[in-house]
């Protein structure tokens, strides 16, 4: 191995091998979480606490952000639509962009930074302070007791939070469009209702948020469980949760949108 | 945090989430996908469908009564075959005419049905034979220009000169 060429090529290869190893470990971890899920779901009070932790505590940031995003959409959309004399279509613009894209995507990004990072830090610190090892010593499986409830708490919370984001955004759009800019309230709602389809737009948005919920929750619990048991390791894992979640959310969004909305 | 308090807040959270979903379902959107058992399918051939798309509305007297389900190209007649689902409550006579119209100047295109006077009604799988194609703006403009040029030609001797100028 003393050959410098071999050394150079190995150094190029190493990150790919590491990434692949980690991906494989994450996949096996996912299977382990699913296998231990029935226990966590049967003792539902455990999952209940995590829904409170991941979901209830995120309501404020999700609701307020949704309201602001809806208001900005209405202000910006009105500026463009009014040039074409189509300002009564503002409701359609606000509702479609929120229900199809912004609700699930921005909701998931906020969820990853608010709840995902906290989950990673919690599990990482449990590992660093050897609480997980202590559980194993007492014949308690930490994946069933600690990881699975947090995973399901996130998966259950995410679609509800995304729906709240969209609903608050539409209310924000209504406040700006009708109350501030003086559009007609009747045409705002009726045009919106005529153009937004329940199955095609709303249900597809909910399906997106379910996928994002699974992805973010898995990344959060995995990074926490995989974190090096040091202060530095936990901080690095927390950062990785947010960065990886954001990339995975946006990448998944491209894929899901291509499947759902292409060519129709 | 006490157990009972957590349950209370989670219950409130789930209720708020479901309320948001119901708001999206009933106040924001409408279900335009008609249930398959409550519709029957008709088709019509058009020479040109313009910008008509699947899921475009079918209207009669301005009321939405169905949706376009599929658009295909018929290689034998070189025409576009549009099939659409119509609510079973509405029956149309066999000499109904279908035309592709545009809502507003820049709006979406839809199919308008104009009922005829025949006593016999269209059945499931039936075909509307009287159709008129979408208005294509370029064709309208070129037709207008040609008729203008002809008017100019008939009025006097300037025709050869103007034609010559056009050819250059």
TrEMBL record, chain A:
Transmembrane segments: 51-74, 160-181, 202-222, 242-261
Keyword Transport: yes
An annotated GO cellular component: ATP-binding cassette (ABC) transporter complex
Subunit field text: The complex is composed of two ATP-binding proteins (MlaF), two transmembrane proteins (MlaE), two cytoplasmic solute-binding proteins (MlaB) and six periplasmic solute-binding proteins (MlaD).
Functional note: Part of the ABC transporter complex MlaFEDB, which is involved in a phospholipid transport pathway that maintains lipid asymmetry in the outer membrane by retrograde trafficking of phospholipids from the outer membrane to the inner membrane. Probably responsible for the translocation of the substrate across the membrane.
Record family assignment: Belongs to the MlaE permease family.
Protein name: Intermembrane phospholipid transport system permease protein MlaE
The organism of origin for this protein: Andreprevotia lacus DSM 23236
Higher taxonomy: Bacteria, Pseudomonadati, Pseudomonadota, Betaproteobacteria, Neisseriales
TrEMBL record, chain B:
Domain of life: Bacteria
Segments passing through the bilayer: 6-26
Keyword set includes Plastid: no
Keywords: Membrane, Transmembrane, Transmembrane helix
InterPro entries xref list: ABC_MlaD (IPR030970), Mce/MlaD (IPR003399), MlaD_Phospholipid_Transporter (IPR052336)
Mce/MlaD domain: residues covered: 39-116
Protein name as annotated: Phospholipid/cholesterol/gamma-HCH transport system substrate-binding protein
NCBIfam families (UniProt xref): OM_asym_MlaD (TIGR04430)
Organism: Andreprevotia lacus DSM 23236
Pfam families for this protein: MlaD (PF02470)
Record flagged with keyword Flavoprotein: no
Molecular function via GO: phospholipid binding; phospholipid transporter activity
């Amino acid at each position: 191995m003393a050959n410098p060429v071999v050394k150079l090529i190995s150094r190029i290869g190493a990150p790919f091998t590491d990434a692949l190893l980690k991906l494989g470990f994450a996949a096996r971890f996912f299977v382990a979480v699913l296998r231990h899920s029935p226990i966590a779901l049967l003792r539902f009070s455990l999952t209940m606490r995590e829904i409170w932790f991941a979901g209830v505590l995120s309501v404020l940031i999700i609701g307020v952000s949704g309201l602001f995003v809806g208001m900005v959409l209405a202000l910006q959309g009105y500026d463009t639509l009014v040039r074409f004399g189509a300002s009564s279509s503002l409701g359609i613009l606000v509702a479609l962009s929120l229900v199809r894209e912004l609700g699930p995507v921005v909701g998931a990004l906020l969820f990853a930074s608010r709840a995902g990072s906290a989950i990673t830090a919690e599990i990482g610190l449990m590992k660093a302070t050897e609480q997980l090892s202590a559980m194993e010593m007492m014949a308690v499986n930490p994946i069933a007791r600690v990881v699975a409830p947090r995973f399901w708490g996130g998966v259950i919370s995410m679609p509800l939070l995304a729906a709240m984001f969209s609903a608050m955004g539409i209310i924000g759009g209504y406040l700006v469009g009708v109350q501030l800019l003086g559009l007609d309230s009747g045409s705002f709602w009726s045009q919106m209702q005529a153009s937004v389809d329940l199955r095609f737009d709303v249900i597809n948005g909910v399906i997106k948020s379910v996928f994002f919920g699974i992805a973010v929750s898995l990344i959060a619990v995995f990074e926490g469980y995989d974190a090096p048991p040091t202060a530095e390791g936990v901080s690095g894992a927390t950062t990785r949760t947010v960065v990886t979640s954001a990339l995975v959310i946006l990448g998944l969004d491209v894929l899901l949108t291509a499947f759902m909305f292409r060519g129709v | 945090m006490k157990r009972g308090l957590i349950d209370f807040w989670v219950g409130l959270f789930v209720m708020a989430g479901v309320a948001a979903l119901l708001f999206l379902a009933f106040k924001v959107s409408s279900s335009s996908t008609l249930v398959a058992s409550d519709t029957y399918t008709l088709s019509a051939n058009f020479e040109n469908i313009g910008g008509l798309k699947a899921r475009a509305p079918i209207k009669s007297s301005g009321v939405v009564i169905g949706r376009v389900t599929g658009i295909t190209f018929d290689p034998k007649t070189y025409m576009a075959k549009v099939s659409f689902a119509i609510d079973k409550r509405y029956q149309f006579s066999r000499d109904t005419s279908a035309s592709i119209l545009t809502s507003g100047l820049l709006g979406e295109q839809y199919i308008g049905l104009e009922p005829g006077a025949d006593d016999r009604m269209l059945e499931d799988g039936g075909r509307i034979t009287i159709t008129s194609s979408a208005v294509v703006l370029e064709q309208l403009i070129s037709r207008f220009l040609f008729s203008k040029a002809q008017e100019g030609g008939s009025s006097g001797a300037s025709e050869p000169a103007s034609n010559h100028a056009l050819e250059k």
